[in-house]
Request: fold
Amino acid sequence: MNSDADRIKLRVIRAGIDTYQQPVVYMHRDCEVCRSEGFAALTRVSMRIDHRELIATLNVVVSDLLPHDAVALSEAAWNAIQPEPDAMATFHHPEPPRSAGALRAKVFGQRLEESDYLALMQDTVQQRLSDIELAAFVTACAGERLDHGETTALTRAMIAVGDRLDWGEGPVLDKHCVGGLPGNRTTPIIVAIVAALGYRIPKTSSRAITSPAGTADTMEVMAPVELGLAAMRRVVEREGGCVVWGGNVRLSPADDVLIRVERPLDFDSDGQLVASILSKKVAAGSNHVLIDMPVGPTAKVRSAAAADSLTGRLAGTAAALGLRIAVNRTDGRQPVGYGIGPALEAMDVLKVLRGDADAPADLRERAIALTGELLDLVPGNVIGRGQALAEQTLVSGRAFAKFMAICNAQGGFTEPQPARFRADVSSQRGGVVVAIDNRRLAKVAKLAGAPVSPAAGLVSRLRIGDRVNAGEPVFSVHAQSKGELEYALDYARSCAIFDLQDIGS
Reply:
């Protein structure tokens, strides 16, 4: 084998291409490295710059866009290896991943041990597994193919390959929503109430991948969320709580990679969902966790049977990890709050915290109920008293004051701004709302530009049981461009989002 000194070197340039979290390198098909190493499109390659190594996927350029003596790096690859100006790189075939045997065994239906999952997660975070291999792993674990023991093993492995926070003695609280419900943005309100009461709640949240807004997207409209571990710790030590983007603190980096593969596949796997949720809670140093589980026909958890199965798996894995959790099943039949989209959801959050008369009642009530359940988990607290304490803290203004303090500690508060363009969507007939399709409603918000355009989305106040007349507006679409507005309106007018029953029938 040739040493790096003997290998052909390519000068490193930045491609300026976003490949999300997947490191990709681009070479011309006629460059000496491609020919001498026998590289082809989608080959996994090991790139070295000095003593730094990165495993990446090769894309081959066939035009003259890229010189033969250069390699171009995607944004993910560039940020991972951070080359100096005029850097030169060498390339070779990487060693086979150590977890290849375990991956193959799982694909063929075998049960894996904790050491197997650790090897798989180590190779995952070190980019030694391609997206094709990761997709095979995700598929092999889908459905009910992970038993309780394997779920716990996978969770432990995810924790082991990331950073982990330690807040010392005492309760450290957290809350997580299983998801699938537009506008269900209770987290910033819960964090503000809990921190105002003197508890620690270091909340790491995700960005949207397939939804119109994640909690991190909504919070980012009001305050910076891309904090590192040290900055996150300073905020929590100063104010008791935070709401930051989990992808920047690497508390469960393997989960971030798996989510990238899982979401386009749209597989439902209780085992991986439990590992995803609980690995991040343990890594964040939390020991008392409330799980919000919306259940409804167009939510992520669609039936009572599915909720029972997921609850049992969450409880069993949490017990094995030493976590105290409670699972609160909530109404997943319809959206929560008025706004769907980062800025519009942020406006709802602020209305609740400020106590505005036009604040969405369902968001306020749900946030108070969930906070009460979380407070009831704390040792020494009287069970059933948490909800009253949460409401008192919100009504008094202490929660809003704490929220503003957290925003300032994270880098400063910004008032959400409305979108440039908006238009109403009217009902084509009259009736009583008997069902709402959450997924189609979310799609309208995404077509309007959310979450890429934070101000985009929609506002809907219609709920199950409400009466609507023909020609009456049922929601308004908000967008930053006329093109996106029309695109969302075309879709909204072509599908049935609200199931109406004739009045009197």
User: Anything to note?
Assistant: The CA atoms of residues 52 and 81 lie 7 Å apart.
